[in-house]
Amino acid sequence: MRILFITATRLGDAVISTGLLEHMRRAAPDARITVACGPVAAGLFERMPGLERVIVMEKRRHDMHWLALWRQCAFTRWDTIIDLRGSATSLLLWARKRRIMRGGRRAGARITHVGQVLGISPPPSPVVWTNDRDDATAAAVLGEGPTIGLGPTANWSGKVWPAERYEELWKALSRERPEARLAVFYGPGETERTMAAPLLAIPGAIDAGGRFTLAQTAAMLRRCALFTGNDSGLMHLAAAAGAPTLGLFGPSRASEYAPVGRRVGWVVAPGPEGGAPIANLPVGAVLPRALDLMENGA
């Protein structure tokens, strides 16, 4: 059985789609699965059982990346195509069965829309795939004892809670949990590292960003007693990995992109949803939710 799974360019949306992919994989454990996604999300699938190939879709002018995808898939007889990008490309490929998620903003959670592609309600929660080597890397980087992860970056400055608020939050958390250590998570590239720099400068902070694969990052997040971060791909990855995860929201919509998992929560800056500056979010609103997640996991 051959499955083509076309998913997102952005990491957060790709993480949200993993539950649907895992549902399909378990239903057909002998299937050979090809995943098409953007370069940022490609590493998310490298440990998935049944993976035959990841096709990395580099954006090109005039949407020529879709033609490139068609050329790589046109000579395969697919049993199932799942297209979460709503593209015309999937209509031009041979398939016994295809399911296409139409685009456009709709009310409700993104995870619900993904589940509706196969009529699954409630929708399957996101997952991460790691192996023993990833776990060994996580143990070596984080060491022993409780770790609190902070994710001070995002792909849009409007989503970024000010660094000084994160510093204030860490001081408060460390007073409550003096045995805990700080791990700072961020993505690759100089821009992400610059956003994380104020927290990396905190004495004893563990640098858990930039140079690690997504599987290694997921393994580290899984070991955290708490992860608090902006609405970002890392926030969704932490929730999928099973870490108690607190998402911070300003101008993005928690109703659409709140973290999904067994132990998650979120705090929204005061003001209209989708329009409130994240700088309006005080530490006093974040701290009690963070402590509650650490203590109770909910």
Question: How would you summarize what this structure contains?
Answer:
By secondary structure, the protein is α/β, with parallel strands linked by helices. It folds into 2 domains: 2-116, 3-Layer(aba) Sandwich (Rossmann fold); 132-296, 3-Layer(aba) Sandwich (Rossmann fold), CATH 3.40.50.2000. Helix content is 36%, strand content 18%.
Write the layout of secondary structure elements.
Blueprint: E1 2-6, H1 11-27, E2 32-37, E3 51-56, H2 64-73, E4 78-83, E5 95-100, H3 110-116, H4 132-142, E6 147-151, H5 163-176, E7 181-184, H6 190-200, E8 206-207, H7 214-222, E9 226-230, H8 233-241, E10 245-249, H9 254-257, E11 264-268, H10 283-296
Helix pairs in contact: 1-3, 1-8, 4-7, 5-6, 5-10, 7-8
Features:
Rossmann fold, LPS_LOS_Heptosyltrfase, alpha/beta, Glycosyl transferase, 6-stranded parallel sheet, transferase, 11 strands
Q: Can you describe what's shown?
A:
It is a single chain. With 298 residues, the chain is α/β, with parallel strands linked by helices. The chain folds into 2 domains: 115 residues, 3-Layer(aba) Sandwich (Rossmann fold), CATH 3.40.50.2000; 165 residues, Rossmann fold (3-Layer(aba) Sandwich). It has 10 helices and 11 strands. It has a 6-stranded parallel beta sheet, sandwiched between helices. The protein has a 5-stranded parallel beta sheet with strand order 3-2-1-4-5, with helices on one face. Helix 1 links the parallel strand 1 and strand 2.
Shape: globular
| Secondary structure tally, helices | 10
Please count the beta strands (DSSP E, at least 2 residues each).
11
Number of domains: 2
- Kindly provide the radius of gyration, computed on alpha-carbon positions and rounded to a whole number of angstroms: 19 Å
CATH class of the largest domain: Alpha Beta
Main sheet: strands, sense, barrel: 6 strands, parallel
Which structural category do the helix and sheet elements fall into? alpha/beta
Q: Can you tell me the residue ranges where pLDDT is under 50 for at least 5 consecutive residues?
A: none
* Name of the CATH architecture of the largest domain: 3-Layer(aba) Sandwich
The SSE string, one letter per element, is: EHEEHEEHHEHEHEHEHEHEH
Gap between N and C termini, in Å? 39 Å
